[in-house]
Amino acid sequence: MAKFGLSEDLAKKIADSIMHVVPYNINVMNSEGIIIASGDKMRIGMLHQGALKAIIKNGLLEVYEETMTDKMGVNLPFTHENEIVGVIGISGNPEEVRTLVRVIKVVAEMMIEQQYIINKDLRRKFSFENFLREWCDTPRDSYSDTLKQNAIDFNVDFEAKRVCVVVETDKPRTMLMDALSVYLKNDEYILRYKENISLIMHYGNRFHARLEAIRDHFEEVKNIGVGILTSDVFRSVVTAQKSLFFSKRMGDVDETKNRIVYFDRYWVHDIVFRYQRTTVFENVLVTLGKYDNNNEILNTFLAYFYFNGDITQITAYLHIHRNTLLYRMQKIEELTKRNFKDMNDRFFLYSAYIIYKLH
After folding, report:
1. Contact predicate 45/59, CB 8 Å
2. What is the pLDDT of residues 183-230, one digit of tens each?
3. Could you give the domains of the chain?
4. Can you list the alpha helix ranges (DSSP code H) found in the chain?
5. Three-class secondary structure of residue 157 per DSSP
6. Is the pTM of this model over 0.70?
7. Calpha distance 292→297 (Å, rounded)
8. What is the mean pLDDT of the chain?
């Protein structure tokens, strides 16, 4: 069986390219002697007896007299890696076309080799993309022997610490991915991952500056989520996705602007979000929400944490006097039985704020 299957498209390219420069009809047959490209379109799909004989002979076949099955001309097999992949047939006096068919054979084999290399590169690229996807989907302690071997074959260092960056776009177009690749260094990778683009990067090499350049130079880029630095790419991917999730839920990112958000800012949110007994926090919000019909106390509580306790920003946002804010904060402490100045109580209230924003 031939390692390289001659496609109809490639056969047509061979026939068309030759017939542009020679005054003879060209037939291209596959390794079974079937005509798959020809100047005479009516013959496509028919068995070519001369080609079949040339394949069996494994050499040049010349036909001087036309018969019911053979036309005058020459037929010469062409090969790839020493295996016959097809036959070139030229109609005409063998004395006139014998030399020409040998030239065409060389041209055909060159075109086949070129296509083989292209196909091989495409297969390797496809395999590498699948490898990257599996790498991103697999926790480090679950790497299969096949995945490890693929890493060796692709010269990917599993031990190196990396940061996964998830780039949110309307559509992860190939042109955008090619443009983003310019910002990557050696041993850094880019792939389509789910609905976005993922970059697997090293932390050094002007890491922050490169992300800012991507944010500023590409209108298609909406937001950029940055995961943790680790040798477990799966964890970095997950935390990059979480950074985008938390930033949107917490109101930290405006989707009309390009923003870069780091998971380092949201590790507390992740802990609180994964905490199963959220009822204790939710009760805080229920208590504050029931205090007044206008939700003044609840909105004050939310504004306090949104503005990180900055009195000036909070009063300006709520359009209230400083003393009014202090009164409301005192009322929150009474209702929740928590003290803003106590570190444990403050963390508890902040956790309640996170739960409210995320749910």
Report:
1. no
2. 999 899 999 988 899 999 999 879 999 999 999 999 888 899 999 999
3. 8-112 (3.30.450.20), 159-270 (3.30.70.270), 275-358 (1.10.10.2840)
4. 8-19, 49-57, 94-137, 145-153, 174-181, 207-217, 233-249, 267-274, 279-291, 296-306, 311-318, 322-336, 343-358
5. coil
6. no
7. 7
8. 89
